[in-house]
Specification:
about 170 residues, Four Helix Bundle (Hemerythrin (Met), subunit A), two-stranded antiparallel ribbon, 7 helices, elongated
């Protein structure tokens, strides 16, 4: 079984350590340094990990995107943390499946950038849900809708582009 993780996952794991770095720098003795290290380790362990074990590239991007839309709506209409957590976890897995897909070379970079931004918002939503913050999770996930609009413009050429080229 392979485990595929986003490069942003490593950053997500590093952020709690970076935030606790001032504690380590201010430690005046070994006991305080050890306590600060424990704070950093606890922060890392408390950070939710979004590992997508065994995720393979989707073969039908359109169908997967439709399922992402449905799952997104389920998450946004959830009335409790557990329901939203289930939907957000599934959304993260769907995003990872699309990230593994090889798009046309001229669109690969922009689509991967958009999917990475979506995955970041999903991870922020998961962190909020871990803290039992349903409203915060919905706020983080709400930014996915504007990302969808922004990057879906890149998907289809306009009539002007079809008639006259770029």
């Amino acid at each position: 079984m392979s485990v595929r993780t986003s490069p942003w996952l490593a950053l997500g794991l590093a952020i709690p350590v970076l935030l606790s770095w001032p504690l380590l720098a201010q430690a005046s003795g070994p006991a305080q340094a050890q306590a600060a290290s424990a704070v950093a380790a606890t922060a890392v362990l408390a950070t939710p990990v979004v590992a997508t074990a065994g995720v393979e590239a989707t073969t039908d991007v359109e169908a997967t995107m439709k399922k992402m839309g449905f799952t997104f709506k389920q998450a946004m209409t959830a009335s409790d943390v557990a329901t939203m957590q289930t939907a957000v976890t599934e959304l993260g897995q769907l995003v990872a499946a699309v990230q593994a897909y090889q798009f046309a070379p001229e669109k690969q970079a922009i689509f991967q950038q958009g999917l990475t931004e979506v995955q970041q918002q999903v991870q922020l939503a998961q962190q909020a849900l871990t803290a039992q913050d349903l409203a915060g999770a919905k706020t983080a996930l709400g930014k996915v809708d504007s990302l969808k609009k922004q990057y879906h413009k890149e998907r289809s050429p306009s009539w002007w582009q079809l008639l006259f080229g770029n």
